[in-house]
Amino acid sequence: MASVSIRKLGVSFGSLSVLRDLDLEVAEGEFVVLLGPSGCGKSTLLNAVAGLLDIDDGQVWIGGKNVTWEEPKDRGIGMVFQSYALYPRMTAEGNLTFGLRVAGVAKDEIAKRVARTAELLQIEPLLKRRPAELSGGQRQRVAIGRALVREAGVFLFDEPLSNLDAKLRTELRVELKKLHMTLGSTMIYVTHDQIEALTLADRVAVMHRGVIQQLASPKEIYQRPVNRFVAGFVGSPAMNFVSGELVANSDPVLRTADGTEIRLAGYPFNERPQSGRKVDLGVRPEQIHFDSTAPGATALPLALTLVEPMGADSLLWGSIGDQSVSLRIGPDETHKIGEKVNVHFQPAAASIFDAETGERL
Amino acid sequence: MSTVVSSADTRRAGAGPREDARAQAAGPKPARLSPGRVGIYAFLIVSALFFLIPLYIMVVTSLKGMPEIRLGHLFNLPSEVTFKPWSDAWLHACTGRDCFGLSPGFMNSVKITIPSVILSILIGSINGYALSFWRYKGANLLFGILLFGAFVPYQVVIYPLIIGFRIMGIYSTLTCIIIVHTIFGMPILTLLYRNFYAGLPIELFKAARVDGAGFWKTFFYVMVPMSVPITIVAVIIQVTGIWNDFLFGIIFSGRPNWPMTVQLNNIVNTTTGVREYNVNMAATILTAAVPLAIYFISGRWFVRGIAAGAVKG
Ligand SMILES: Nc1ncnc2c1ncn2[C@@H]1O[C@H](COP(=O)(O)OP(=O)(O)OP(=O)(O)O)[C@@H](O)[C@H]1O
Ligand SMILES: [Mg+2]
Fold it and tell me: Which ligand 1 atom is nearest residue A53's CA?
């Protein structure tokens, strides 16, 4: 178990600057997930922590030690890769023990660790097999085992589940969570799957263009995104955005381009709202209801356009002027398309972003 | 002609009506061979004959005695099979004043080929590995230069090499010829291995680094075991290339180390006495035997190795 501290990290490939001035503190035993779209620099950050690439700037501390110039093997890390990266010519056991053999760990110690790891991951029957003789899920288990036998303080996962089918992914996700609870090790986990991020993480770091946009608990990320990018990236189906202009009376109001007024009373503004400011109102589909009885609910006039059945529930689409809004409804509810209705949401639970900067107001 | 073509057409149509085929059965009954097939086979047989006839003549001649050869019946089977030309070629044929046959040349070729093949493959694979995984400064430039080396005509570098080896004091030695073969094998082998390793996932290499394996341990424990298919290709290329070499052998190895090809040339071109065609033929077949054997044994592996880029762990 060890803490990880990334300070003012800068990484570039040639003239392409991928990470700039990046800070990240991961506490001992914490499970931090790096979440972001493809190409935002998640793997680069993870590789920088592992010591697998040259960094331009900044420092990496692991377990209170500056390891910026240490080799990966001396950093006290174990790593799991997206493509498993098992040594194809070695058995599962050989894969598990390679690092220990290279390090010259005593034979009986190796045997002990392999036995323990294999039991933990339930891969004992697979130990004598080559990677080619394993299924995808089994390979990933072995790959996780290879990281675990190192008994490192920090585990780094680079999209370990993204090559597996949906069912297996759910299974292994639960197992990883259990594993973290059993071992209590520090884990940094890269994914672009928000379900993984929200279910596994103690804290999620949402990344975009090499910058950590928000680092907070999954709940906080989901409920109080700090900017429009985070709000739009996290959540499925995606958050609705309604853009318009603020009118700051005693009760602030959002006026859309077609003149619709949406009352925002109860929204916890960070600063006094100014009239005339262009903003985007963000409301998640499940926060919008037909029911108007909730305290502080505000009305949203919608022209219904489309129903999308999604199994457990359906997504009802409507429009305010030329802007679309969706809400979740029960699978059996029926609504007349083309009808004009009023739906309701609580401004207190919504998000409002500056249209220019994208920052939360 | 037209009936034949149309019968072929119904065949091509797959489950064409049987009645049609039968109606045309008045003509030559269409066997399994369509005219196109016949053409292909004819062509293949003719080309096979084209290449096999010289071999046939060589084998037949090498089994005849000289009196029979003088009769001039080139294509006839030997009336009396004799293996004396073969043993002569191997043990007694004369090159200049020495009459020890090809066997010393064979031994020389073995002594040249084995170390050259091992050394060049070892260095070539390390080159390819370093170039694809350890992207050090100037790696691409180095690779470019190496590739350029593949296109430099040998004749251009021979003289400078001779001078270089003279200065080093190893000209005309076994070491010298082994170094030459190793150097000239470098471009193709480096290219071969670099492309092979470039096809492997970079994460494999990263995993080895996290496991604490450095340059050499990653190479020997992780990369080499995966390189079997491509190494088979490399061995075939190198063994045949070096075994068949004549130019470098005659220039760089020195008289006592002359490879089999050079000795063969000397035996065939020795002008004293009568020209012993049977011995010459036997000697030629003996010299060609090693590459031939390699092809026959490894043809299957060769194809597999070439296709090995697709092998995934
Ligand atoms: N070795 C490299 N050389 C040059 N550019 C690179 C290299 N590795 C990554 N990049 C670039 O750096 C950026 C970040 O890459 P990175 O692999 O960290 O993305 P990622 O967030 O992990 O994406 P993904 O989810 O697709 O894995 C990308 O624009 C990528 O093109
Ligand atoms: Mg990545």
Answer: 1
B206 contact residues in A (CB cutoff 8 A):
47, 50, 52, 79, 81, 85
DSSP A88-135: TTS-HHHHHHHHHHHHT--HHHHHHHHHHHHHHHT-GGGTTS-GGGS-
User: Which residues in A291-315 are b (16+ Cβ under 10 Å) and which e?
Assistant: eeeeeebbebebebeeeeeeeebbe
Q: Which residue of B134, B210, B221 is the best one to mutate when testing the A interface, meaning the one whose CB has the most A CBs within 10 A?
A: B210
Q: Which domain holds residue B61?
A: 30-82
Q: Do A102 and B222 touch (CB under 8 A)?
A: no
Kindly list the structural domains of chain A, giving each domain's residue range(s) and its CATH number in brackets, ordered by start. Answer: 4-233 (3.40.50.300), 240-354 (2.40.50.140)
β-sheet bridge partners, residue B303: none
| A329 φ/ψ angles, rounded to the nearest 5 degrees | -130, 165
Residue B12 maps to a domain = no
> Which residue owns the Cα nearest ligand 1 atom 10?
A13
Residue minimizing CA distance to atom 3 of ligand 1:
A13
ipTM value of the model?
0.85
Nearest CB partner across the interface for A89, out of B201, B209, B225: B225
Chain A nearest CA to B12, separation (Å): 41
pLDDT tens sequence for chain A (361 residues): 789 999 999 999 988 999 989 999 999 999 999 999 999 999 999 999 999 998 998 999 999 999 999 999 999 999 999 888 999 999 999 999 999 999 999 999 999 999 999 998 889 999 999 999 999 889 999 999 999 998 888 999 999 998 888 888 898 899 899 999 998 999 999 998 889 999 999 999 999 999 999 999 999 999 999 999 999 999 888 999 999 998 887 788 899 888 888 988 888 888 888 888 899 999 999 999 888 888 888 888 999 998 998 888 899 999 998 899 999 998 888 888 888 999 999 999 999 999 999 899 8
A81 at the B interface (CB within 8 A)? yes
The verdict on the CB of residue A48 being under 6 Å from ligand 1 is: no
